[in-house]
Design brief:
The protein is mainly alpha-helical and 178 residues long. It has two domains: 70 residues; 108 residues, Arc Repressor Mutant, subunit A (Orthogonal Bundle), CATH 1.10.10.10. The chain has eight helices and three strands. It has a three-stranded antiparallel β-sheet with strand order 1-3-2. The longest helix is centred in the first third of the chain and has 35 residues. It is globular and about 50 Å long. 14% of the residues are buried.
Length: 178
């Protein structure tokens, strides 16, 4: 039986290896020739720390939403995105793109939300290939209740740990990376 590693797991594994002695990993390579490896490894380590932080915060947000509302973070994100669009309705293809999901992943996610009564599918009258997703009243009500928990978790796990200067610096850095 083989184990499949996903990209984040590979990055985390590489970063953990980096934290060990480079000479141990590459015994035949001198410290001088390791300079390039260390430089590249520090880039990977930075990326790994960023991903690890995002994953930790996301896990805490997800836990709070699932515990109180039985609403996973990914489903919450769909409801939130729909709320931000006029008429609470979005083209499924564009919605999947805006949430960085494959169309298959979006279909499965919307299936769950439809079965929960939080969204409904609406056919496009002009093009049978296009399907819209619309937030239901039940979805709007759940979203309003869940947003309070979401905002509390964001504050607890992110903004409360930083001062105003750090928050502005982080915003500036993240905007630069977009």
């Amino acid at each position: 039986m083989t184990t499949q590693l996903f990209p984040r797991q590979i990055v985390f594994l590489y970063a953990k290896l980096y934290l060990m002695d480079i000479g141990t990993l590459n015994p035949g390579i001198s410290a001088e020739s390791n300079t390039n490896i260390v430089c590249k490894s520090s880039d990977i380590l930075l990326f790994s720390l960023l991903m690890h932080t995002v994953d930790n915060i996301s896990e805490k947000l997800d836990g709070g939403l699932v515990h109180k509302f039985e609403l996973p973070l990914r489903e919450f994100e769909v409801l939130l995105k729909l709320e931000q669009i006029s008429n609470n309705t979005a083209n499924m293809g564009k919605l999947s793109h805006s949430l960085n999901l494959t169309t298959g992943g979006m279909t499965r996610l919307v299936d769950r939300l439809v079965s929960s009564g939080l969204v409904e599918r609406v056919a496009c009258p002009n093009d049978r290939r296009v399907v819209y997703v619309k937030l239901t009243n039940e979805g709007i009500d759940l979203l309003q209740a869940a947003k309070e928990e979401y905002y509390k978790e964001v504050k607890t796990n992110l903004t409360a740990k930083l001062n105003e200067t750090e928050i502005e610096q982080l915003k500036s850095i993240l905007k630069k990376l977009e």
